[in-house]
Amino acid sequence: MPLKCRPMSAYTHTSPHHVLEHVFGYTAFRGEQQAIVEHVAAGGDALVLMPTGGGKSLCYQVPALLREGTAIVVSPLIALMHDQVSALVEAGVKAAFLNSSLDAEEARRVERALYAGELDLLYVAPERLMTPRFLDQLDHLRDTHRLALFAIDEAHCVSQWGHDFRPEYLQLSILPERYPAIPRIALTATADRQTREEIATRLRLEDARRFISSFDRPNIRYTIVDKDDPRRQLLHFIREEFPSEAGVVYCLSRRKVEETAAWLQEQGINALPYHAGLGQDVRAEHQTRFLREDGIVMVATIAFGMGIDKPDVRFVAHLDLPRSIEGYYQETGRAGRDGLPAQAWMAWGAQDVVQQRRMIDESEASEDFKRLARNRLDVLVGLVEATTCRRQHLLAYFGEESGPCGNCDNCLSPPQTWDATEAARKALSCVYRTGQRYGTGHLIDVLRGERTEKVLERQHEGLSTFGIGSELDEKRWRTVFRQLIAREYLAVDHERYNALALTELARPLLRGEAEFHLRLERERSKGRGKSRSAARMDIPGGVPTTLFDRLRAWRAATAKERNVPAYVIFHDATLREIAIARPTSMAELGGISGIGDRKLEAYGQAIVDLVAEVG
Fold it and tell me: Whole-angstrom Cα distance, residue 175 to residue 154?
C-alpha cells in the first residue's frame, strides 16, 4: 500500500468537526460519535458498542488525526485492514497495515515509517502487536511522545464464550500496564450484557466510559420462513427482491456451501463459494471479487464475514439456523451498511434445531459452555417462532426496548396463532410443583405422564401436574417452553444445569390475568406466493436511473484503475445523493455527504462533467 506524503499531524489541534468534514466529507456526527471522539481525543478510555454501519471506525479515526503521533488499530482480519487503509489513503490520510500479505521489504518500509513517526494510523493483528520486536517499536513511540492511542476493533473476539473468540486478544490486557498514559478504545457491534462485562474485564477497561448505541438497524427487514424446498425459496427471494445485487448466503457446512453456490450458478446467479476448506488463494480471490465487483452473491460458512467492510450488501440469507442471537445479529448486520434498504432472510426448520443440539452435545467443550450454547440456541429459536415483531425480540435480547417496527414479516403479515394459554399455565405449574429445579426435558416427561427412571426416582408421578399435558406431543411442548423462556416468563439457571424458574412475569399468567399465543405452523404449500418487494430499491428515492447507473459504471472503472474496492471511491449512498442533487459545480459537489477535500480534488471535475453529459 503506497504511503501518501504529507506533513505529520496536519490535522492535529483542529476541531473534530473540521476533520469530519474536510477529511471524511460528513457535515455532522451521528448518535454518540461526537461524544466518543471528544472523550478519546482528550485521553479517555472508552468501550463502544455500536451496530454495524453505525460509524464505529470514525470513533477512533477522527481522534487519531486530532492527537499527536500514530494510532495503533488492532484488527483481526487482513481483509478488513486492507479495506480500511485503502479508504483512509483515498481520503488523504497517512495510513498503513502490517500483516502477512506484505513481503519483507514492504514490511520494513512500513516499520521505518512507524519508527519515524510518519503514520497517522497503523493497522496490525493482535499476534504481531504482541511480538517483542513490535513492542520495542511501540516503546520508542511512547518514549518520544508519538503514540496517539490504541483502538481494539471487533473487541468481542476477547470473549471466551463468544462465537468469534480469538485467544490472541486476551494478551491485549498488558497494554494499560505497559502504556498507562495512552488512551484505549475497544469497539464491537455485537455484545450482550455478559459479553460487555467480559470485554471490560479481560481488556482491563472496567473504568472506561461506556457508550452503548441503539442496536436497531431500521433499514434491514427481517424475514423468516419455514423450509419448503429452501434452494428454490432462496432463488425466488433473490430474483424477486435483489436481482443483480450483492448478497451473502450462509450455510452450516462446507459441502452445502459448494452445492448451493454451484446450483445458484446454474440458475444464472453470479455466486461464489467460501469456506475454510478452500485453498487460501481461492478464498482470497473470491473475497476480492466480492469486494470489488458488483452483484456477487457469496455463499459461505461463518468463516466469511467478520470485518467485511462492503457497504452495499443488499441481503444476507441463512439456509441454516445460526448458532445464537449474537451470531444472527452480526451476520445479518453485514447487509445495508450504507443505510439503504436491505433484507435479512432465513429459511429454517425443526431439523435445524436438532442438528445444532447434536453439534453442541457432541462437541468437546466444557459442560458450562454447552449449557450456555443450548440456552443461546433456545433464545434464537424463540425469535424464529415469535408471532410478534422480530425487531422487538432482537433488540430485547440486547436489553433495548422498542415498539413494533412495521417492517418485518410478522408486522407486515401477522401469522396465524393458537391459544396456548392453558398449556403455558400447565407448564408454569409443573415448574413450580417440581421445585423449580429441573430442565425442559424432565418437565415435559412429567407433563406427558412419562414414567421415566428420573420421574419415578423423584416420585414426580405423584404430582398433580403429572400427565396433565398428554394432549400435546414433545415438539409442541418444547415450543411452549422455548417461548416461555424467550418472553421471560421463565428464567434459565445456568449454574444448576439449565433448571427453569418462574419470574415475576409468570404470576399474571398463572392467575388467569394474561393470555399466551403461539405461532401456528403453516401448512406446506406448492405455491411460492407473491413477493412483497417494498424493501426492494434498485434506485432508491426517485433517483434518475440513467445517471445513477453511469455514476456506478464510472466508479467501477476508477476503482479498477486504482486497484481498490468500488465503495472505497464512493458509497452507493453518496452516488445516490449526487444523482438526486445533480451538482453543476465543484462547490455544489463539495456539499454532498461522503466527499472530503481529497476526494473532491481527485474526482470532482470528472463527476461534474459526467452529470453535465447525462443532462
Answer: 17
